[in-house]
Structure prediction request, 461 residues.
Amino acid sequence: MRLMSASGFQVCLVVILLAAPIFVATGAPSGYLPVQSNIAQTESRSIILMIGDGMGYEHMSLAGLVEYNATGTLSFETLTWNASVITSSLDAEITDSAAAGTAIATGNKTNNNMIAVTPSGEPLETILEIAQKLNKSTGLVTTTMIQHATPAAFMTHVESRSDYSEITSQIVEQAGVDVLMGGGLQHFSQNQLNTMASNGYTLVTNRTALLDFTSGKILGLFADSYMDEERYRDYTATPSILEMTNKSIELLSQDEDGFFLMVEGGQIDFAGHDNDRIGVALETIEFDKAVALALEFVQDNPDTILIVTADHETGGMKVVGHNLDDVLPGSLMQESDRRSLRVERATNVTTTWSSTYHTATPVGLFCYGSVFESLPGDLLIDNTDIFTLMADYYAGEPLSVTDVSTSTTSTSSTTGDSTTTSTTSGSTTDGGTTDPNLILYASAGLGIVVLVAVVYVLRRR
Prediction:
């Protein structure tokens, strides 16, 4: 009995050949397929990056104990996604802030002491410069000097972090950062300040002037050198890191194209160098207040992501015990009283130190935003991946990080309320990724086999 005509076989053949690749591809495990970017492109994407210079996990533990007791956590410890970060530089296991800042700002390793350049001195493009190319406003805030290693790594390119003259010249003549706040007034000549004014910047040097400023480009220089430690800050004359962060967000968020803001709690590092647990506690607590404020903004503005990290750990600090009661700083009304209680509580925490310099201990990374929700947590990544996360976000690409402990790459793609995660190892010999092209080749091969079989049957008839 004849079941189908020759033309019927030909139609079936066409259907089989067209459907085979689709069937094989859609039937394969999702991890075998390249993840496509489905993130909606928006012009207003913004990033708030907050760096606690020298802030290790134990620094956070100390600050949490002083402010909240053992049952409380700092604001950034509750964020959506977290990982641990390796901080080594290109030429040393123990980094300095210049090389670490460069890794975060550019996604490239360089030698210690170098600012956003390769070891041969070639400039490396920074995430701030990428934001500027996207017509976004930019800002840098620090409690040290704006010429210091971490902020400098985002806006200048020099072979020595100590070349404050060249860093200042580049700030004035090339950087074009809209919001600059910190110390470092002594490194500006009057001619350079005049140039900044002619370029549209308003110079402010005290807290009152900062709080009264409402729009435009700002150069906030609140100390000749480093800003005062939190322990000695004059509340009426000098703005806090929280107040500088708040004003920066207020100014930068006026740009409909979005913005990039880096905020550095720079004196956590100084206290670590001094093995000063009181300084570590107070500086970290103030940094966390600024994080909490930034988090409120990001929660209300879903096109903005928040990234909190450290460039390295300083001091090898470890909390080994405490003798704390239940009277917490938040229960007091006056800020001066809260500071006094923090000092007292920090004194009652026992710490040990292994160094007066930086260490190679991994530091934390804490992020908030829906784009992070499908990334697996508790990974160990390199500090260059922080740049990758930011660059991917601005580009509308899936966020990706590499787990250096297992050499796998995790990618997060977000569309509206749905998320997809793909994890790939990059190897076909040990259970890793299968090349997607092999699937198509197999499909074509199957089609050829079917074609030969059909022709054979027709000819037999």
Notes: DSSP finds 14 helices and 17 strands in the chain. Residues 1-42, 414-444, 454-458 have pLDDT under 50 and may be disordered. Residues 74 and 142 are 20 Å apart (CA to CA).
